[in-house]
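Bumping with the actual sequence this time:
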Amino acid sequence: MAIDYGEKRVGIASTDEGGSFALPRTVLPNDEKLLENVLEMVKKESIEEVIMGESKNFAGEDNLIMKKALEFKSELESRGVKVILHPEVLTTMEARRLQGNNDMTDASAAALILKNYLESRV
């Protein structure tokens, strides 16, 4: 499972059973129920690890949203979820370029993060 953490929306992606393909799944509002919703998915699907995009600017420093993303990562970890940060650069822009701007853009960005993570393990 991968997360593209955003200020208003959070994209979620998952893999096929073999872990070969990254698939856009859903977009959740970044609200008071986000943690509960993600934990429910993790539990229901027996997810072993969550890949979260690590967003940096071109100078290699954390973007403004990264502070909140790291807080969310800590909340997940405090509840026993293994979270792996994986570098992401312009995944939302790439998702928009590939499919246009629509309701699933953030999930597609999460799928790109997951795809890059899976490819880095080969």
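The tokens above came from a reply further down the thread. The radius of gyration is 13 Å.
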